[in-house]
Write a structure and sequence with these properties.
Number of strands: 23
Distance between the termini: 30 Å
Number of helices: 15
Structural class: alpha/beta
Radius of gyration: 22 Å
Largest sheet: 7 strands, mixed
Strand content: 15-25%
Amino acid sequence: MLSEIFKAYDIRGIYGQNLTEDVAYKVGKAFVHFLKCKEAVVGTDMRLSSPKLSKAFMHGVTEQGANAIFIGQVCTDAVYFASGFMKKPGVMFTASHNPKQYNGIKMCRPGAVPINENTGLIAIKSMIEKNQYNAKIKKTGKIIKKDILKDYSIHVKRFINAKKLKKLKIAVDAGNGMAGKIIPLIYKNLHVKIFPLYFRLDGSFPNHPADPSKYENLIELQKIVRGKKCDFGMAFDGDADRIFFVDENGEIVNSSLISSLIIKNILMKNKKEKIIYNLVCSRIVPETIRKFGGTPIIERVGHSFIKDTMRRTKAVFACEHSAHYYYIDNYNADSGMITSLIAAEIISKENRPLSELLNEFRKYHTIEETNVEVHDKQAKIKEIEKIYSKQNPKKISKLDGITIEFSNWWFNVRPSNTEPLLRLNLEANSEELMNEKKEDLLRIMKS
C-alpha cells in the first residue's frame, strides 16, 4: 500500500483507502526518527480529511519524543516560510489540486529544504515497512499551537514596494481553498480592490475543483473580470501555492508568459543571474532569460527537484509550466502569494494593461496541458519515442518522460507522479501546426 502513495516528491493518496490515520501516524514517527528532530512544524489545508490525518501524524511525532508546532489552516508556502523562518522541519497536509477524496503530505527539512524520493521519502517508507523507530523514548513531546500568519504576511510583502501599487481592481477565485483565508490577510491595507469568488473554505469543493490549470474552472473568474472591468484576475489551487492569471479582457494567460514577464523584471534590475525553468515551459522562457542577460538552467518537473537545483546553482528565480514560481529570498520555495504581489506591482509600475505587457512574449502557440489515462505509462512512452525518432528530430531528451524537438515544434510526454496519467505538452510556431500535431499525438496516446 505504501508504494501506491509514496511519490517522487510527496505522499499522495485517497483518504480512507491507501492514506489513513494509521499511515499518517507511522509517517509522523518515521519523520522524527529519520530527521532526528526535536520539533516539527505542521500545517493543513481545508480538506475534510486534513484534521484527522494531521492529528494522527502529530500523535506519531509526539510519541517519538518531539514537539509538533501546529500552525493550523494555511497555504503551503506558509509552511515553507515557517520552516525557513523558524529553522525547523515542516509538514503540510494537502493534495493541492486533486479531487476531494485525495490528501497528501509534503515534507521539508529545516530551511524549507524539500524531502523527495532521493533525499528521504524512500528511507521514511522503508522505516515504516520495517518498523524501525527508536524503541526507548524517554519523554513524549507536546503539541504547541502557533500563529505564523502575521510574520508570513510581513515576509511576502517585502517582495514589493507597496507604495508603487496603483488603485487596481483584481478578481480572485480561491476555489474554496486556502487563498480564501490568505488573500484578505495579504491585501489588507494595500491600494487594491479585491473582487472575491469562492472564498469560503470548503474541502468538498462545492463550486468547482480547485484546479485552475483546467480552463473550464476559470469561466466564472473570466466573467467577473469582464463584468467588473478588473485590471486582471487570479485563480489559486487548493493549497494556494499555484497561481493562474486572466488578463483585463478575461483571456486566460499561459503561465510561461507570466514567467517571462517576471524574468524580464528581475533581469532588468540584476543581469547575469541564473534562472531555472522546467522542461515543459514554453521556449519563450529560456529565450527571454538569454535576451535580458541571464543564464537559463533546465530542470525536470517537480518542486523538490527545482528547489534542489536552486540551492546548488544559487538561481534567483525558477518557474514551472504548472504555475509554480520560486524565489531565492523565499527560502528557494514557491509562492502564489508573492507572485500575485509582484504581478500587481509590475502592472502598476508599467501603467499598461496586462495583455499589452505580455505581447512581446507571444511568439509560440502552446496547448493546454492535456492528460490521458494510460494503463502502461512506460510502454506508451517507448511507443511514442519509436514513432517520432524516425521523423528526423533535432533533439530527444529523457530528462522527464520523453521530449522530442523539431525545427518548428516540440512536445513532451511524461508520467504523472500522482495519478495514472500521461501528460502531454506541445508547442508549435503556428496554431495550425499545433493542432495538427496535438491530434496526432493524442490518437497515439489513446490507442
